[in-house]
Amino acid sequence: MSNSILEAFRLKDAAPANPELPHVGDLGTERRRLIHPEVKVIDKEKGIVDFIASDESIDSYGEIVRAKGWRFNRFEKNAPFVDSHNYSSVKNMLGKVIDWKISKGQLIERVQYAIEDPEHTIAQIAWKLTINNFLKAVSVGFIPTKWVSKWGEGDGYLKELSRLGLDTDSGVSVIFQEQEQIELSACILGANGNAVAKAFKADALTEEDVDTIFAKSEQLNRRRSPQSGDGANPYGQTSGDSEFLRNLKQITNR
Q1: How far apart are CA 101 and CA 87, in angstroms?
Q2: What is the reported pLDDT for 11?
Q3: Number of folded domains that form the chain
Q4: Same domain, yes or no, for 132 and 168?
Q5: Contact assessment for residue 1 and residue 91, using Cβ atoms and an 8 Å cutoff
Q6: Are 126 and 112 in contact (CB under 8 A)?
Q7: Are 113 and 164 members of one domain?
Q8: Is the C or the N end of the chain the one with fewer CB within 10 Å?
């Protein structure tokens, strides 16, 4: 079973909660599935790699995303590959998804990093982390449109379990049957302090790269924690520091 996590957050236009499906949460909610696959480099010069974006494994919440249910009506218009689901700026675009397919119960997506622009520092850092095997996790953002659950009426849940070769003792609570992909993310800021630190110590990242990550992380952290103060030392410990920043400072001696 792959190591995967599913988490949810409310969109601004989220629909009212459905009391009959307490685990699924609000309808109209975007969800994220984080998976840690092996990365297949297709073209190192052009920055092209293949990721397994999703599979049909049972995640830690007892949920399964059916591979045949992926829809790309919204995604194919732009196919964004972004940093950590952050849409606040075009600077957070790491590249684009240039192709995708369903194969053997997996959603496989081909990504091209925006490495042709030397000024696009986050994309350059993400690429260095990827090709040096320090960044393997990708997270697909999607909106469920059809699902069955153990709380629902009828026998749809049991039938779907049977199709998957599972039973009621498998721990599955929700099976997403159809879902619209919104984006694909790599998690650079806020989640991979150890990976960044290891890459730095292995000379895969430069001092300048780490300084860039610190600066952008501090900026993001200030927005989330106003009490940290605008004049705080970017390398100093503050009450608003995230776990990511604390770990990174400790390991890189900043």
Answers
A1: 25
A2: 31
A3: 2
A4: yes
A5: no
A6: no
A7: yes
A8: N
* 19 token code pair: 């009391």
Amino acid letter at 83?
D
* Helix-, strand-, coil-residue percentages of the chain, each rounded to 5: 30, 30, 40
Q: Tokens 């995604």 appear where? A: 75
- For the segment 123-143, what is each residue's pLDDT rounded down to a tens digit? 998 898 898 887 777 889 999
Query: Which candidate, 37, 40, 196, places its Cα nearest to that of 111?
Result: 40
Q: What is the pLDDT of residues 2-51, one digit of tens each?
A: 333 333 332 333 333 444 444 445 535 777 777 666 789 999 999 999 99
**Helices 193-201 and 207-224 sit at what angle, rounded to 10 degrees?**
160
User: Which regions of the chain does DSSP assign to beta strands (E)?
Assistant: 4-9, 30-35, 40-43, 48-54, 63-65, 70-71, 80-83, 93-103, 106-113, 138-149, 174-186
The three-class DSSP label of residue 168 is helix
The highest-confidence range among 95-104, 181-190, 207-216, by mean pLDDT, is 95-104
Query: Of 137, 170, 186, at which residue does a domain stop?
Result: 186
What integer pLDDT is reported at residue 20 of this predicted model? 45
The backbone region for 95, taken as left when phi is positive above 0, alpha when psi lies in -120 to 50, beta otherwise, is left
- Write out the residue range of the structural domain in which residue 110 sits: 4-186
* pTM of the predicted model as reported, rounded to 2 decimal places: 0.71
Rounded CA separation 81/78 (Å): 9
Over range 147-170, report the average pLDDT. 94
- Is pLDDT at 180 greater than 90 in this prediction? yes
Q: What is the distance between the alpha carbons of residues 143 and 30, in angstroms, rounded to a whole number? A: 5
Report the C-alpha gap between 191 and 22 in whole angstroms: 28
